Amino acid sequence: MWLNRDLPRTDRIVLEAYRGHWNVERGPRLERVVFRNDIEHSRALELVCTTEGEVDIVTEVAPGDGRRVIESEHAELVRVDAMRVISGIINRGSDAPLNDVRARRALNLAIDRDRLVEEGFAGYAQKLAGLTPPYAAGVPEGQEPYPHDPDEARRLLGESGWPEGRALRLATSVELEGPSGMVAEDLREALGVEVGVTVIGEDDLLGAAHVLVEKRIALTFDVLVHSWFDLASDAPPAVLHREYFHSTGAFRAGPVLPEVEALFARFITRTDPAELVQASADIDRFAYDEALSVFLCAPQALYAVNRHVSFKGYAATFELADTEVSEQHWSRRG
After folding, report:
1. How does the average pLDDT of the chain come out, rounded?
2. Co-location of 100 and 183 in the same domain
3. Which of 304, 274, 325 is nearest to 64 (CA)?
4. Does any domain span residue 330?
5. Does the pLDDT value for residue 281 go beyond 90?
6. Which strands sit side by side in the sheet containing 75-80, from one edge to the other?
7. Phi/psi of residue 114, nearest 5 degrees
8. N or C, where is the chain less crowded by C-beta within 10 Å?
């Protein structure tokens, strides 16, 4: 199913508190919530930082704007360890030897994740060791991010039989162009190969997604820098690993892996929480050991919030169930 992004949206959506709900201990905490679709994001950020009464919460603040929010008079920056990951989808069906685990490990060893987090995300991210965010359930014990080791990366790439003069083809979206440029620099310098970067524009993004998901046309990239999210933190493989590695995964790029199928067959039958966590860890460890992706980072969700608003962020989605305002909030000062 594909979402039609061209449908018009109403300028505002207004939610009114329902006081007849049975769970009175939970709330409501807010009388009225207005979602505004009539303000550009940059303007909304300016309003929450410089005024009161127009905007109280701005979602999806860019890492580069974090300092502006922190230094503003009216807003505070709320950081949430979100169920989001940025990784490189490795095309194991490429004409390059990316079906060789040595080449995939070489890609991972080429990346300077410390620099990526600090410079690419202004520190508002955590390095990935595998595909599971470090604060979620199912992180294998003792599993650390691949080190930045250019010498070993170049050695492994040579052993994999990378063709002389063959450039590595990197693709990304406009949204991830900045971090992807850093990834390309690392790959180029560590591996000693040329790296061509293709930035997929907004007009072409849906078509490119069709090609990846439907798997009817040969993919034209070796590595696709890609962002994805999960709606729960207790069993990440259900939405993360499945999409990237399982036979039913929308973002799988390469042949089906029998080992992954077997691991998921066990995963989906676990009902005991402890066994589910272990099954999740087993999947992530296999993905890590086989270097099935270029594991990059888990960016935080950033919110600019009026200083008189108590906002509790959720790891998976934007929720206001636990949000309330103080007596000093503009709406209560009369």
Report:
1. 94
2. yes
3. 304
4. no
5. yes
6. 57-58, 301-306, 75-80
7. -60, -45
8. N
